[in-house]
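Posting this for the archive.
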Amino acid sequence: MSGRSPTPEQRAAIEVKGRDVLLEAGAGTGKTGVMVERYCRLVCDEGISPDAILAFTFTDKAAAELRQRIRVELGRRAEAGSERARELLAAIGGAWVTTIHGFCNRLLAGHPVAAGVDPGFRVLDAPEAERIAREAFDEALREFLAADEDAREDTVAGFDLDGLRGIMLGVHAELRSRGIAEPRLPDPPAADAAGAIRAASEAAAAALEELKPTDPKRELLERAAALGAAETAPGVDELYALRVGSKAKALAAYCKAIDAAVARCAEAGEGGVAYGHLAELLELFSARFEAAKARRAGVDFEDLLILAALLLERAEIGKAYRSRFSHLLVDEFQDTNRLQLRLIEALRGPGSELVAVGDELQSIYGFRHADLEVFRGQRALIEQRSDAETMELSGNFRSRPEVVGAVNALGAALLGDSYRPLRVGAAAESEPGAGESSAVELLLTARDGWDEEGIELEPAIDGRTPLNCLAEARFVAARLRELADAGIERSEMVVLLRAYTHLDAYEDSLARAGLRPYVVGGRGYWSQQQVADVGALLATIANPLDDQALFGALASPACGVSPDTLWLLRAAAGKRRHVWPALQRAVGVGEAEPAEPERLAQIPAAELELLGCFAATLARLRERAPQLSLAGLIEAATGETGYDLAVLMRPAGEARFANVRKLMRLAAEFESREGRDLRGLLDFLAD
């Protein structure tokens, strides 16, 4: 294990046999090394064929790393004189070390006819699958509305179109992640509205007995108590008006009962109709999506799992694979879902041994509908079995003892008794010398007060970054500059961020400090502000009524108005109304009456001039867009709005604008594949 001997915990996990094991291994505890050693012990010491061992990892990168480390360990054993290891080295490239999706792909490719797929099928990557799904939803929605019924239009109007699309795609994906090949909404239970109203009336009467005679809520509760004797059933709005916003213990039962009455009445009326419409729309979407994939001979990630599980559940094929694999290793078990568990169970033969490695505390990502209850449920089952056991790896080998100690101190302070302390796995290789700085420093930045007079923080490229985040970035950059001046090489410095939300502030701060940062990970190029700006500008050209895109374009250097102006435009337009007509009215080119026209008069003259120029330029771009290539449209949009000059004049302007030029190249490549489809390009950028 990287030249050191395994710890007692690791040794036990490597050598356990004859039983299933759930190995709980936290970050940095050497779990990959344990999997490598266990694999090599099985093939070298136990004589198990690599073809009888199936090792699942979570990502292709992790699978490649595990395969490489197995190869290195076999090489070490061969150099130490193991003939078995030397024989295995040549064949290890074909070992079953893969992701669950990779295994399913390999399984279907070996049995396409039995699986019911085109022998030449291909796996759709996530962006392409999402694009196909959006197109399928649009087709399904047109078919749904073709019936020309007012109730259908009312249902669609009750949702934001993007919101309705998101609901359909999300429900479809969630049901399929549970193994449902043909997603359908379940039939709703019968809505007993009358019973719920009686219960609310009784709860109101009981609550009245607890209230003082002078309590102002008595009048509302008296009306609610009278519902039980009413000749006509109340409507949803009438019931909703009887809700109380109180957390008083005396009203708890009534609050619960009146909310239930509102829900049951809604379900019995318009809510039930809308649910039926959504169920129908889901069926239409599912059919359209499957047809679109079939035309491309494509399968998505969920198809891989569902088809593979169905294939393994067939007696003849499943029996062959269950007898083939005597050992299963599953990494990142906390990130599995019920469909993946179903597939793992379908691979387990009566004599196979399963070692599942996971850590509940690392289940924070929700990858592909990961279900932590699967991990917890399997742990509970293993704890109850006499032929299985749970084991633990607790020593952290990834961090210096000082870092582990600092994390434990912070974790205990923030989480209290619920925090499980980390344990040092190995002593540090070296200790700080006399006069050297400590291994851990805590840099604290105040959350508030950065907008006070006398504090000057030059904004980052993304002016929307909160000032406290910008101050923290400046502080980090200043400290790293001090370390660089003290002789620490830039290549020895790493800044780890919790998220990429305010990456621009750190990148800009480090650049100002002369440290020339290099960004690794995240969305990389796609996280650059220029990509977001141009995307918003293109989306506004395609549809000025897209409020989110419009605000993005207005805030960008393409227009450059202040946040106050954006707020005034939003307020003038009114709730649930588009902003573009209000902007047109503000600059004198529109006739639509905004909800609060007096807000437009509060926009400064300089800001109105910027809005007027933007509106006029956008009108010209919309008129020319059909005649321009996609790359040409980007060039025209950035040039005519002045976005190009604004970016070039900022720090690192050439590097920033290079992102726009790259976007032009990507747009040209997209057009060569998909045609001149601006909406399709925007969907591609959104992915």
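The beta strands are 20-25, 53-57, 96-99, 122-123, 298-299, 327-330, 353-358, 388-393, 395-396, 423-424. The longest strand covers residues 20-25.
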